[in-house]
Amino acid sequence: MKEHLRAQLAGFFISVTLINVAMFVLGNILQPDLRFGYEAFAYPLIYGVIGSLPGLVMFSKKELTMKQTIIREIIQMLLIVILIITFMFGRFKSIEYEMIPQIIAVAVSVMIIYVLVNVFGWLIDLKTANKMTEELKKYQAKASGK
After folding, report:
1. Could you tell me which of 20, 37, 46, 91 has the C-alpha nearest to residue 99?
2. What's the distance, Cα to Cα, between the start and end of the chain in Å?
3. What letter does residue 90 receive in the DSSP assignment?
4. How far apart are CA 118 and CA 100, in angstroms?
5. Can you tell me the distance from the alpha carbon of 25 to that of 19, in angstroms, rounded to the nearest whole number?
6. How far apart are CA 55 and CA 60, in angstroms?
7. Per-residue confidence (pLDDT) for residue 112, from 0 to 100
8. What is the DSSP string of 116-134?
9. Which among 85, 130, 134, 146 is least buried, having the fewest CB atoms inside 10 angstroms?
């Protein structure tokens, strides 16, 4: 459980960074003349929390098969997309036609961010595993007297 929380926290910070990049890019493309106040700094944090919730809720101690893991990742990504779009556009009683490109852009960026967060997490885990393997090899060599 402690390891899962650590991974979720790392994912949160990676997400917030990537959300900032996505907001900058999408903002410059979709609404380049729009300017925000200081409250805009809170939104990446809010979106990061929203994006982390499904990962906290869908935690399982049981080892999953590859198929189960892929299905869980897809469900988790779709939940995040739905939560973010609902949070961003849910205040409107009806979706106007002009909003559809924004909604699609947000959904695509959320999916890209989700994939990148998982790739970065995997790379961090791989680096940690390689470091542990090297340390184990050094320990075994030392223990065997070489």
Report:
1. 91
2. 38
3. T
4. 27
5. 10
6. 10
7. 94
8. HHHHHHHHHHHHHHHHHHH
9. 146
- CA-based radius of gyration for the chain: 20
> Which are the contacts of 79, defined by CB distance < 8 A and separation ≥ 6?
54
Provide the 10 A C-beta neighbour count for residue 54.
Answer: 19
On whether the CB atoms of residues 127 and 10 are closer than 8 A, the answer is no
Closest Cα to residue 51, out of 107, 120, 110, 96?
110
Return the structure tokens found at 15: 């997400």
Cα–Cα dist 28/114, whole Å: 21
| pLDDT tens sequence across 112-145 | 999 999 999 889 889 999 999 999 999 998 888 7
Contact (Cβ atoms closer than 8 angstroms) between residue 80 and residue 54: yes
- Domain interval for residue 74: 2-143
* pTM metric for this prediction: 0.76
